[in-house]
């Protein structure tokens, strides 16, 4: 069916030279793809009035925890506060499936689609849990998903680095793991630190030697950054730095950038890694230092991990620092565990208090990063859901970034010492809607190599979001007028649109890489020494993805093409 959206203001930063305010134009799509305007005289099967509206491509969230065992563990831990979500029964007027910070899979999908997001990436897929993680993401119906393969604390990789194996061997191992787990990128959490925690280490900086393998986090970062680049992954190594949440950790963050040795590197939830030790509280903002480092190092990108005040639960593979954070749990309970010697997991319930100095300054540091990094294509909108707060805060965060007066109002409500210690009040910059489209559409698609989305150009998937223009930016982004997924209208002013047409299959976005098979037997032998199962059991076939897990596997090949 041929559809046209008439007279909307199209904001599409993927086209160079277009006005930042957008262009009033028609947008055509057919069979789920955006197409060129047809020859004069051809009549659309459906015409949609877009006057008074602005239109963007579907949103892309490159870091949100929506799959994997950690989410299930969090629901189990908080079962006494949130009745079993699988029963979907109401308790004191609340539906447990609709928990604000830890909703069920179906509610997660609904809330993302309600805001106009159509693609979401799970940033921590432990290889031994990849099958389960993909199955859980497949239950987030209506969203296209993908995962980042978690490496850097597994004994095979650490032993390869420690024994001085050539880079080509490391590359073969990384490629095999990415291909086997059907992931799109590689993630490292507290490089080497999770493994060192199992040897009773409680701190590990970038130049600290591992107690068994003798390697440092800096070596791990450099080796993995190079491997990711040389095997052809589009997304840089996705790095959760050492010393998360520790005052003074900005030095570790800057050292991590240097450890990349010029290779592309992405720093995730950077707000939690941008702390100094100045002032009477010995806790200060180092956002300006990190912003300066980005200007000096064009190979670096980051997402923010903005906190939101209120209740949430923190879930992380960083067992070392979650073990420390358990003392701040609210309520006082937590889960800390090892997972098949590949990584760890820590689940700690938490509440960010508006009148608490540290929490208030964390809030301000996140906004400082957004506003101090000049290029919106190098800083990405995340709350590290649910760690900093729920993803449903995005419309509010967009409003804060586009409206200095609103920022000043909220700044006046936080802890007064934190407000005084922050430079946020002196920043006049306001994001344009063009900047928002870059940060939430064009740039995520580009950094992930997703050439078929994040844009309104012909050939792209017709994931299209239509907003009624309004001075109330938060309300506008909270409830778009229309949301189209692969050309089909699925939301209208926040209401689900039922249709007799079958929904298109959700896609799992993965990287297609070449594996040097000469070294695989060596990897099997190393894995057998520490694993409790055969390494080959990690492999997920295309048939299993399509027919068992229930998601269409779409592989991104080097250069940005696709293989379905």
UniProtKB/TrEMBL annotation:
Signal peptide: none annotated. Its EC number is 1.2.7.12. InterPro entries: Amidohydro_3, Formylmethanofuran_DH_asu, Metal-dep_hydrolase_composite, Metal_Hydrolase, Metallo-dep_Hydrolases_sf. Residues 46-475 form the Amidohydrolase domain. Transmembrane segments: none annotated. Pfam families: Amidohydro_3. Keywords: Oxidoreductase. The keyword Transport does not apply. It is an enzyme of class 1 (oxidoreductase). One of its GO terms (molecular function) is formylmethanofuran dehydrogenase activity. NCBIfam families: one_C_dehyd_A. This is Formylmethanofuran dehydrogenase subunit A. It comes from Rhodopirellula halodulae.
